[in-house]
Amino acid sequence: MSNLLPATNVVQASAVVEIPELKDDKSIRIGWIQTCSRMKFVNTYGKEGVTSWEFPEIVSGKYQMISDADGKQYPWYGSRYEIQTIQGPSAKHSVTVHMNDNFFPQVTWYIPHPSYDRMARLTYIHREQDFYTYLVVKDLATNAYHVLKTITWSMTINIGVEPDKPLGRRARLLAPLEQDPPIIRDSGDRSRPEVYAMKPPNANNAQVLVWRPLVGEPKIVVPAEETTIGLDKYLQTTRDYLRHSEHQQREA
Questions:
Q1: 150, 134 contact by CB (below 8 A)
Q2: In this structure, what are the phi and psi dihedrals at residue 163, rounded to the nearest 5 degrees?
Q3: Angle, vertex CA 84, rays to CA 83 and CA 86, nearest 5
Q4: pLDDT for residue 252 is more than 50
Q5: Are 3 and 107 in contact (CB under 8 A)?
Q6: 3-state secondary structure of 197
Q7: Where are the domains of the chain?
Q8: Could you count the other beta carbons within 10 Å of the beta carbon of residue 106?
Q9: 34-81: pLDDT as tens digits
Q10: Distance, CA of 72 to chain centre
Q11: Which residues of 201-220 are buried (b: 16+ CB within 10 A; e: fewer)?
């Protein structure tokens, strides 16, 4: 087995929305739009360095958030139970929309770069992500969006790893043992998603995996499938990103 597969919590949301009477020429869509505003997903490999999953648009400061749509029906998060479309004429009634999000991280035991052997060197995993989940109604005639509620939530994972131990005994979950509860907001900061976060690229396609050695130049391990950032320039301008962080210094 070449990967560590940590289990994570499932985040779920459900909303019942009261729909007023709709005229013949009126149609609306109710659903969830989710964006990610911050990600630190850093895997430490002893004294050699770290791999880091990154959103170049966010790290560079070009974007403050990025779409977390599934890519099938922008900007919506999902296209089944996550959205409801109501076509007029329609009497007053209610609809329910659900969403859930979970993580399936896979981290290699060894440094995923051809200049290193396949010896297990992974010693620490740190992941932090912040999300905004919006309950939104869209007027399909005007394409106008209105945010009904905003949920802010985060996920933090710290895993210590002893690579010399047998499989099944190497990893242990560190603090926090419980996640902070989501916060439901009516309005305020981030009361609506940024325009650029309602279209491509989405989080899955925009992320890159970078090998950042303690000594030497960073290298792209997994390139972005879709990005608005030149990755060569990105590596040059972020060569010291994380180099002096707690993740790099942890084993130094």
A1: yes
A2: -65, -20
A3: 150
A4: no
A5: yes
A6: helix
A7: 3-249
A8: 9
A9: 999 999 999 999 999 999 999 999 999 999 999 999 888 899 998 888
A10: 17
A11: bbbeebbbbbbbbbeeebbe
Compute CA 250 distance to the chain's CA centroid, rounded to the nearest angstrom.
Answer: 25
pTM: predicted TM-score of the whole model, two decimal places: 0.90
Task: Say if CB 154 and CB 128 are below 8 A apart.
Answer: yes
Distances (CA, A) of 9 to 130, 227, 230: 14, 29, 34
- CA pair distance 16, 9, nearest whole angstrom: 24
What the block records as the tokens of 223 is: 């390139």
CB 157, CB 8: distance < 8 Å:
yes
Q: What is the DSSP track for 108-152?
A: ESS-SSTTS-S-----EEEEEEEEEEEEEEEETTTTEEEEEEEEE
CB atoms within 10 A of CB 122: 23
CB 33 within 8 A of CB 76: yes
**Token pair for residue 89?**
């004429």
pLDDT by residue (tens digit) across 209-228?
Answer: 999 999 999 999 999 999 99
